[in-house]
Amino acid sequence: MQLPSPLHQILYNSASFFIKRDDLIDPFVSGNKWRKLKYILLDAAAKNKNHLVTFGGAYSNHLLAAAAAAAKHHLQVTAFVRGEEVNNPMLSLCKIFGMQLYFVDRESYKNKPRLYELHFGSNKAAYFIDEGGASEEATIGCTEIIDELTEQFDYIFCAAGTGTTAAGLLKGINQLALATQLHIVPVLKGGDFIKDEIFKYEKNLTKLHLHTDYHFGGYAKTTPELISFIKDFTSKTGVLIDPVYTGKMFYAINDLIESKQISKDAKILAIHTGGLFGILGMIDEFSKIS
Ligand SMILES: *Cc1c(COP(=O)(O)O)cnc(C)c1O
User: Fold this and answer.
1) What domains, with CATH codes, occur in the chain?
2) Cα(182)–Cα(205) distance, rounded to whole angstroms?
3) 60 in contact with ligand 1, CB cutoff 6 A
4) What is the pLDDT of residues 195-209, one digit of tens each?
5) What is the 223 CA–ligand 1 centroid distance (Å)?
């Protein structure tokens, strides 16, 4: 575990900005998934639970993080995977770390507490972890990203799926009364819902800005433009980014600077939330570009 995660300065398209390299915390328990699991695992340990039970899609970074973290802490781990039984490199990695997989149809998957109750209701060792690790504990882990900063920034950028990480960042900014503005790039279509998600954990939203137009068609959707951007960015900076989360965030930062919506003289920090194995789910998209 590399903590606090390093801060790197990069130059891209003649703009300079900083990256909080949470992707370097651990290759598998990567980025915000490590932040989110930290206090969840402490809570499980305090309650003497040694069997983690969680949920995710077939390319979920959270599942791989949970599998690797469980192995490291000598815990059993089971995941309910959304959809029909499949095999892919991500799930194979989960299995290597010892995760037991149950595939469930999309309808049953919707009611996670019920699935848990049905299969683990009477299991005293079992511990429920929501999809993506979403929880109050997860937000507390994410506030520590802010606590680790040793300098001030005008803007902090982060990608959002559920908004739990964003909520933790905002909590951290508010707790320290920083002047920093938080810029969130939802990776799903209709990303305005993120505001309500964040509000569940943090009531003061004055420093929050959402950029909802960088979803590229929706969750895990890409376009040739996004794929080309990722290749250009990675080849010019040496910082690998993925098409599901960080690629969309860095695209947004670059676009907002180019269109002068934010000044290139501003001091910008981007959170690299990790999740690079997500690339495995889209490897064909990358083989199409030269
Ligand atoms: C899961 C994930 C996110 C989204 O985090 P939320 O807390 O759900 O908003 C962002 N980036 C990466 C790389 C992820 O794996």
Assistant:
1) 7-27+139-288 (3.40.50.1100), 33-133 (3.40.50.1100)
2) 9
3) no
4) 999 999 999 999 999
5) 20
